[in-house]
Amino acid sequence: MGWDSTPRTVQSDTHANIGYPFTPVLVDNTPEQFKEALIAVRDYLDRGQLSTPIVTVNSWNEWTEGSYLEPDTVNGLGYLEAIKEVFGIRK
Q1: Mean pLDDT score, 25-45
Q2: Is the peptide bond before 21 cis (omega within 30 degrees of 0)?
Q3: Contact criterion met (CB below 8 Å) for 86 and 42
Q4: Rounded Cα distance, 23 and 43, in Å
Q5: Secondary structure of the chain as H, E, C letters
Q6: 57 pLDDT band (50/70/90 cuts)?
Q7: Is the pLDDT of residue 22 over 70?
Q8: How would you classify the pairing of strands 61-62 and 67-68?
Q9: Model-level pTM?
Q10: Mean pLDDT to the nearest integer, 20-45
């Protein structure tokens, strides 16, 4: 999973990093790194500092930007399994 909003821009133009859609490209994320980030978020939520302990994780199918949770041929169910392992039913 990554983030690349450049498909939504004019490819011949150059732009300063002024916010969406002209933001940096993120690449080379793995389900393991994603899981580490989820653990950090869960730990933060567990500290009870928010009145509403809820977080938006990611988009389900932003294939154009390379940021999706759906299974693929590279990582299989890796990102969904990471969510299940971190936020699934606690024993």
Answers
A1: 89
A2: yes
A3: yes
A4: 28
A5: CCECCHHHCCCCCCCCCCECCECCCECCCCHHHHHHHHHHHHHHHHCCCCCCCCCCCCCCEECCCCEECCCECCCECHHHHHHHHHHCCCC
A6: confident
A7: no
A8: antiparallel
A9: 0.73
A10: 84
